[in-house]
């Protein structure tokens, strides 16, 4: 049975959620303190559209959504409920409707791995073709993203730091970019980046890249009649390193993922061999160039 609230309470909450423009403005400001601008706009949009679920306690509409969209809606409602001070209500709704945060099952994972459209060879092919039709400063951003494993927005901001603050950003002794020195940019609530191992050639790519945002990159790729698949760059990085013997746990560290297993959290204490990884990155550069 849907979560019951009084008509008076319903009316009061609907006025807050549906009518108060100031609340949405303040809520967006709050979102911008915890997520990037693109994610904030998505969360705001889904929050406005599905806020009635927090009022009525009826989440049946979420159950009919695709897995990916359901996750986006759930994240948005979780954030909104925390902002409104009714997170306990949201937790009751999750429990009542047995809503799951995971968007994968074993069959979906298997099908994704064997999907020929997104295998390593086809992703490399997309990268080469896209770089060949873009101006050099745009193509170099894609190459840089593929050689660092950073997320698209992170890669664009990293390039700006290399060009504006490299003395503080680059540890020349270990040849690592120290993203952790810029927590406002790279240490976000759900997405993080700590370090990237680089070579002089990778730094040169960054110096010859444009000061571009992810949105500018996306628009330029679309103008050239290509689909934007910048997420491939991060997958290329991880796949190439793993196929060349780099441990999954180290790849997770380089891509800003916190270890989840007991082994990785408490017992896996490797010496990260920067020289070994740079050899693998150099081989990747040969592949994509």
Unreliable runs: 1-12
Q: H/E series, N to C?
A: HHHHHHHHHHHHEEHEHHHHHH
Give me the oligomer status.
single chain
Total strands = 3
CATH architecture of the largest domain: Orthogonal Bundle
Q: Cα-atom Rg, whole angstroms?
A: 22 Å
Question: Biggest sheet, open or closed, and with what strands and sense?
Answer: 3 strands, antiparallel
- What is the CATH class designation of the largest domain? Mainly Alpha
- How many domains? The number is 2
Give the distance, in angstroms, between the N- and C-terminal Cα atoms.
59 Å
What structural class is derived from the secondary structure elements? mainly alpha
Give, in spatial order, the strands making up the sheet with the most strands.
Answer: 1-2-3
Described by the principal axes of the CA atoms, the overall outline is globular
Q: Look at the structure and name the CATH superfamily of the largest domain.
A: Intergrase catalytic core
Percent of residues in beta strands?
Answer: under 5%
How large is the count of helical segments?
19
Q: Helix coverage percent of residues?
A: 55-70%
Q: Kindly identify the CATH topology of the largest domain.
A: hpI Integrase, Chain A
């Amino acid at each position: 049975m849907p979560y019951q609230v009084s008509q008076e309470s319903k009316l009061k909450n609907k006025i807050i959620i549906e009518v108060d423009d100031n609340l949405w403005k303040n809520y967006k400001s709050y979102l911008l303190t915890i997520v990037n601008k693109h994610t904030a706009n998505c969360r705001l949009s889904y929050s406005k559209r599905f806020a009635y679920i927090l009022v009525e306690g009826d989440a049946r509409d979420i159950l009919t959504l695709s897995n990916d969209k359901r996750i986006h809606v759930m994240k948005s409602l979780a954030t909104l409920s925390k902002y409104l001070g009714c997170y306990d209500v949201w937790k009751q709704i999750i429990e009542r409707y047995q809503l799951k945060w995971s968007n994968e099952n074993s069959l979906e994972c298997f099908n994704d791995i064997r999907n020929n459209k997104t295998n390593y060879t086809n992703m490399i092919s997309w990268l080469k073709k896209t770089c060949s039709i873009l101006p050099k400063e745009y193509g170099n951003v894609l190459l840089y993203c593929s050689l660092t494993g950073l997320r698209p927005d992170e890669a664009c901001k990293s390039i700006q730091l290399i060009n504006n603050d490299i003395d503080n950003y680059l540890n020349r002794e270990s040849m690592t970019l120290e993203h952790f020195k810029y927590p406002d940019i790279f240490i976000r609530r759900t997405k993080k980046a700590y370090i990237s191992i680089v070579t002089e050639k990778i730094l040169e790519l960054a110096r010859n890249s444009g000061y571009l945002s992810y949105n500018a990159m996306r628009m330029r790729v679309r103008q050239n009649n290509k689909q934007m698949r910048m997420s491939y760059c991060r997958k290329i990085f991880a796949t190439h390193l793993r196929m060349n013997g780099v441990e999954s746990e180290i790849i997770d560290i380089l891509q800003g993922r916190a270890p989840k297993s007991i082994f990785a959290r408490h017992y896996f204490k490797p010496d990260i061999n920067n020289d070994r990884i740079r050899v693998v990155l150099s081989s990747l550069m040969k592949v994509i160039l």
